[in-house]
Amino acid sequence: MFTLEQVKSEFEASRNRLINISDDAISDILQEYSDSTDINDIFAAIMDEEPSSEPSGDDVTGSDLSNQALAITLAREMDDNVVFNQHTERSLDAKEISIRAAVIMMKDIIDQYTTIERNADGSEYVNTSRLDVLPIPGTEAKNGRVIRSSDDKDLGPIEEDNITRRVDKFSVDVVKDGQKKKEPRSFWKEYTNNLSIGKSINEIIKGLKQALDAKQHTNAPRVYQELSTERATSMLDRYTKRKGSLLSLVKGAINCRNKWIEIVNNTECKVELEIDRHDVDGVIREDIADTIKPFCLQDTKSRKFMNLSVTEFLAIDVDIAMEKQGTYSAVIATIARAAKVTTTGLPKVNTNEEGSAYLAELAAYFDQRLGDARKRESSWIEYLRKDEHALRSFYSLSMAWDGVFKTIQPLAEALQAKDIQTEARERAKQQNSSKREQVAKAFADKHNQEIKNKLDGALPKENKLANLMK
User: What is the pTM assigned to this prediction?
Assistant: First the structure.
């Protein structure tokens, strides 16, 4: 686990500046991540927390209470959305956050904040104006421009087409120790903190922190006072991560929608979701298909299409695709990423044959070291939960092999059936061989016993007189 001082030191060395949030805020961020988290992910979270580099002003920089008020208003409106709350609770309660959870939330958010309206001629249109004003996660205002903090990418002017764009980071005036100060805020943190589920998580975290603080222990709700230190610490860790997961889901949902719009508006592609339709009491219900690739990218000039995972979809670089007229092929080409540099110390795999050798070793490890299927699954699930790097590698391998396996699955199953038959024949052969050996041994034992009996009958009778004279 990275220490506070280690993070501050490495941040300064890599960014040539100090972190612009308090040590307590940095410590809170560190609690949201596991021991195996990449330090660059922690840096990105820290930069999301840092205040905008421009001073607080009017809504041109998005740095006043109107941002906060909008976030709170939208969050409270979502409280009455039963479907959203059910989906969110289910996602956070799952042992592993579903890869499509952000897409499900994106659909829920779109359904909540859009309306069907009519033009003057009576035709219908979808009004997305409330969604369109929402800020891009992780953005701040610099010199009248919208800048994404994680990579300093310029996303355009704040004032555009007579529309004032909002940014994620803003500041509010607070009074502390009798002095007026600027305090950083994040639109999307304000939003998640004011969702009913977000408020519930924060109340639990507050109670647990009070219970663990000797000076505040008696102020904690009784249910937390009665917990052991170990139990309270474990719960605090779990709910702190739950809070981070909720924020990540919301940001992921908004990023998916923004990428969708960017693709449709600037390329020769359209985007659709893989939808399952169900008849529930005569009402057609639409749900995101249970698939790891819920996005369908389609060529508007032909019938070409490709299903994409959330990771692949967000990896599309529209700017690069537009350099080649934004064609379907140009868009698809941007998904391919540079080969990752590993630090395992193992020889690099350059050919299918070398890859096959690794697969053989891994297969042998699963079969010989981990035993039955249930033990293999529980062992790896437990390990992947603890190691994010391993989880990323496992996911990337699953993505790479998904299409391959579907194609070769009939061949693999036929080969497996052949192996089972061969093993059965070998087992029968061994059993037959064992029976023959038993029969032969029994025959030999019987023969030896018969010889012994004959020899015993041929021996001279004992001389009793001689025995007496001994």
Answer: 0.62
